[in-house]
C-alpha cells in the first residue's frame, strides 16, 4: 500500500472537495456495518451495498472482510498510541502529563466511539497474525500509561501500591467509555474528560 | 419453566452426584461456544456437539440460539444484582458498603469472566424485547451503586462533584475487568478486589 493510499484510508474526513476513493468508502461502510450487526453478522454484500458498490468490487480493493476489520483496528490503535504519546510528551510534571493523556484519550474515544467499540470488541475475529499486531499496539499504549504512572510514583507525586494494576484500571475507564457513551447523552466529551481527569488523579493518589 | 428447572439452569455447579440435565448441559456448552467464536460465529450444531447431543435436541430444550444467549445474560445480570444488593445491605457505613460491593463484584466477575464477557459484549445479538429486559436489569445494578455513592455524599463522607458519572466509572472498572482478567495471570481475584476497593474509595473521595 502506498503512503498516500494509507493516508486516505486512515483519515475519516477526506479533504474538502476531494472525492472519497473506493477503498476509503469501503472502510467507512465496514465501520457502520460492523457497528450495526457485529463482524460475524455482517456480509461482504452488506458492506458493498452501504458503499454503493457491487460485492465483487469489495475484493478488488480489500482481500477480505477480515482485512477491513484489521485496517479499522490498526488505524484505531495507531491513532490512540500517537495521541497518548503526544499528550504524555507535552508536559513535564507527571500530574499535568496524566491530565493531558486522559483528556486527549477521553475526547478521542468519545467522538470515535463507534469504531472504538468495534476495535475493542471484535479483536477475536482477526486472524492470529493480525491479533498479534494489534496486541503489540495495545501493549505499547499500556506501556506509555504505565511509564507515566511509574514516573509520578518515582517522583514522589503519585502514591499507589500497584502502578501496573492502576494502569489497567485507568485503561478500563477509557475502553469502557466507548461502550456507554451516547452522542445524545447529557454530557459532552469535554464534560466527561473534565471529570475523568479528576478521577485519574485520585486513582494514582496525586492529591 | 418450573422453579426447579430454572434453578438447574441458573447454577453452574450442579449438586454432587446429581446428573447434569440436558437443558443445563446446553447452556454450559453455549457459554463455551459463544466465548470461543462469538454469538454470530456459533452455530446450533456447535452447541449441540459440545453438549454431546444432536442439533435437533437443542430445539427440544431451547427455542433458539438467541434464547440460550438470553438465559445466560439474564442469569448473569440477575446474580450480579443479587450480589450487589446483598453487599450494599451488609453494612451501615457508606465506605464499608462500597468496599463490600466492589469486593463481591470483582471476585464474582473475575471468577465468571467467560460468561461476563458474553453477557457484556453480545447484548446487541438479543431480540429487542430481551434487550429491554437486560437493559432494565443493568439499570437496577446502576441504581444500586448510584444510591450508595449518593448516600456517601449526603452523609458527607464521600466527596465527588458528579456522583452519577463516578458511578459509571466504578461500573466501567468492573465491566472491563471481565475483558482483561486471565486465570493464568499473576493476580488472584482477591488481589484485584483489594486494590480495586482502594481505587473505588479514592474515586468517590472517601479519603
From TrEMBL, chains A, B:
PANTHER family on file: HTH-TYPE TRANSCRIPTIONAL REGULATOR RUTR, HTH-TYPE TRANSCRIPTIONAL REPRESSOR BDCR
Keyword DNA-binding set for record: yes
Superkingdom: Bacteria
PROSITE patterns the record matches: HTH_TETR_2 (PS50977)
Keyword Secreted (UniProt): no
GO molecular function, one term: transcription cis-regulatory region binding
Protein name (Swiss-Prot/TrEMBL): AcrR family transcriptional regulator
Record feature DNA-binding region, as residue ranges: 43-62
Gene3D superfamilies linked: Tetracycline Repressor, domain 2
Domain HTH tetR-type: 20-80
Alphabetic keyword roster: DNA-binding
Protein source organism: Lipingzhangella halophila
Amino acid at each position: 500500500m502506498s503512503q498516500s493510499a494509507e493516508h486516505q484510508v486512515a483519515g475519516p474526513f477526506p479533504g474538502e472537495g476531494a472525492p472519497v476513493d473506493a477503498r476509503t468508502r469501503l472502510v467507512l461502510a465496514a465501520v457502520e456495518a460492523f457497528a450495526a450487526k457485529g463482524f460475524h453478522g455482517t456480509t461482504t454484500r452488506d458492506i458493498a451495498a452501504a458503499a454503493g458498490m457491487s460485492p465483487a468490487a469489495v475484493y478488488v480493493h480489500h482481500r477480505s472482510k477480515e482485512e477491513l476489520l484489521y485496517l479499522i483496528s490498526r488505524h484505531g490503535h495507531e491513532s490512540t498510541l500517537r495521541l497518548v504519546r503526544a499528550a504524555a510528551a507535552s508536559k513535564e510534571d507527571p500530574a499535568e502529563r496524566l491530565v493531558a493523556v486522559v483528556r486527549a484519550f477521553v475526547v478521542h474515544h468519545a467522538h470515535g466511539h463507534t469504531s472504538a467499540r468495534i476495535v475493542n470488541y471484535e479483536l477475536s475475529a482477526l486472524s492470529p497474525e493480525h491479533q498479534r499486531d494489534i496486541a503489540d499496539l495495545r501493549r505499547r499504549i499500556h506501556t506509555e500509561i504505565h511509564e507515566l504512572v511509574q514516573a509520578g510514583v518515582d517522583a514522589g507525586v503519585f502514591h499507589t501500591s500497584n502502578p501496573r494494576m492502576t494502569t489497567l484500571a485507568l485503561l478500563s475507564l477509557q475502553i469502557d467509555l466507548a461502550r456507554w457513551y451516547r452522542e445524545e447523552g447529557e454530557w459532552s466529551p469535554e464534560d466527561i474528560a473534565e471529570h475523568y481527569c479528576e478521577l485519574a488523579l485520585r486513582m494514582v493518589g496525586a492529591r
